Amino acid sequence: MRVPDACRFTGISRSSLYLLIARGEVEIVKMGAATLVLTESLRDLIERQRGTSTSRTAAPIRRRSNQSEGGKSGRRFRSGRGAGDFASTPLFDRE
Q: What is the pTM of this model?
């Protein structure tokens, strides 16, 4: 299949697909100017990803302790945020 079809099939971006091709994780065939991605190679990639621990787990989303419960979305907005306002907010819990 062609590269755009392979991207739709896997749900990854074109640049990610080319990175996988460069690493040898996805096999291609060149026919003239066309780059054809082998369907079996894409299926193998998906099966390999199913076996990894990162594909089966996700980081839990943690609510900030200073977040209000009121309002429709529970978010508070303010004008004039500085660059350092987000520095103290951790993105992930450290265990």
A: 0.53
